[in-house]
Write a structure and sequence with these properties.
Blueprint: H1 12-24, E1 33-35, H2 45-56, E2 64-66
Parallel strand pairs: 1-2
Length: 68
Amino acid sequence: MDRAMSVGAYPPLYSEIVNSIYHATSRKIDIASYIYGLGGRDTFQKDIEKVFKDLEEGEISDKIKYLK
């Protein structure tokens, strides 16, 4: 989960994790980044529960998702 993003670039924490895993293993691993709290928006428990539900169900259709 990242609380920042740059236009045209991957979120910072996501980028660090992907780079580390890429160099550590040859297998393909699905990784998703959830962006939250942009513009000072609050993040609620239901938002975090949605992240866990998506991950438990294997719902990683997009590499980067936004919590609204």
